[in-house]
Amino acid sequence: FELISLGSHPFGHCFVMKFNDVTFMLDCPLDMTPLTHFLPIPFVPSKRLEALKCLDDHCTPKTIAQQIKEVYPNYFLDGQLEFCLPELGAVDLSTIDAILISSYHCMLALPFITEHSSFHGKVFATEPTVRFGQQLMEELLYMAERVCKDRLPSQWKTKDCKDRLPSGLKNAVDTRCWKPLYNESDISCCLSKVQTVGCGQKVDLHGSVELVSLSSGYCIGSCNWLIQTPYQKIGYLVSSSQLTTHALPLDQTAMHNCDVLIMCGLTEAPAFTPDGMVGDFCTNLARTLQNGGNVLVPCSPTGVIYDLLECLPSYLDNMGLQSVPLYFLSPVAETSLAYSNICGEWCCKSRQDKMYLPEPPFGHSELLKSNRLQSFKSLAGKIQHSSVFINVAVYSTSQ
């Protein structure tokens, strides 16, 4: 047994594991941290950003200095966006037999591996993970394509050049792993190579090991993995939750008596529950609306947004704010809302029961019918004052 970590930071878990003559990659997330070193993406043309001064440093090559802008006292890159991949150069990707994906948040680097490397193995994930992962990739690509700028010269990442840059850029980490994003064709070809598995389904790999996906309770389609032989059992436990949410509950039983348990994505506050935070959020939201303001809610276009779309309307009704509309802004907003209501078998029992009534598992269907919830691909829609905007800036610096 051998385990290698390729993650660039504690929450970007990516492992390569060798077990019983089979080599696995466990997850392949994309690190968004490099975005904090780039100029923000304006929704409309910004004269202020266009007027920013370039880096004035005779020691830095002119081609690089022209793409570094000063926002006193900081400096930012003004070029094609780049993202940080796992340390893929640390292993020979052609030797990997299979990639196991635990959730849609942990697969955004997959097109780099399947389309731009020597990898030719298998990829396993649940059906919702693939579909929601596709939506996240498409939204990320939409955002990246808004920046119609030249690619940054690669020599700025060399040690000699970085040492002469301002402190913020000089201290940027893992720049050798930064890459521009993939394209639409890469996404399509990549996802066509993924073999979908059901919850609890057993998959034989090369007659050497058996793979089992187990619900992790984290989000729709998320799973932990069991890799076993008749004599040994290894568990991969990642981003799991015992809270009662819309997802299938955490399956812990099969993880008992593992010979090796790989754990990552652990919380520093295991007893913490989000109830108090949601209460504070709703209180401040209502206060802002009562004062005639708008509320912007940055969040992922899948997952927790489905819970927000159920708790927010009822809270607003209790506060006498029934007339306040909800706008879901994302290039994949319509797709996300539609798909969430056709994967009820991946939800908790109470939502599964709704399918036999028959009713949609999520309440946002009624909000759409009543026109209280509207989805837009961008801000270029008919939007009124005193509103709640959800998913305006998913890939903010906080991520």
Compact overview of the structure:
The chain has helices at 47-50, 62-65, 110-115, 127-145, 159-162, 167-170, 184-191, 275-290, 304-318, 333-340, 349-354, 364-369, and strands at residues 2-5, 15-19, 22-26, 68-71, 74-77, 82-84, 98-100, 122-126, 178-180, 194-197, 202-205, 209-215, 223-228, 233-238, 260-264, 295-297, 326-329, 373-376, 388-390. With 399 residues, the protein is of the alpha/beta class. The strands form 5 sheets. It has a 6-stranded mixed beta sheet with strand order 1-2-3-7-8-10.
* Sheet with the most strands, sense and barrel status: 6 strands, mixed
Span between N and C termini? 33 Å
Q: Please give the number of β-strands.
A: 19
Please state the average pLDDT score.
87
Approximate helicity band: 25-40%
Continuous helix count: 12
Pairing-aware structural class of the strands and helices?
alpha/beta
Name the poorly predicted regions.
392-399
Overall radius of gyration: 23 Å
Question: Could you describe the 3D structure shown?
Answer:
- The strands form five sheets. Strands 1-2-3-7-8-10 form a six-stranded mixed β-sheet.
- Helix 4 runs antiparallel to helix 7.
- It is an alpha/beta fold and 399 residues long.
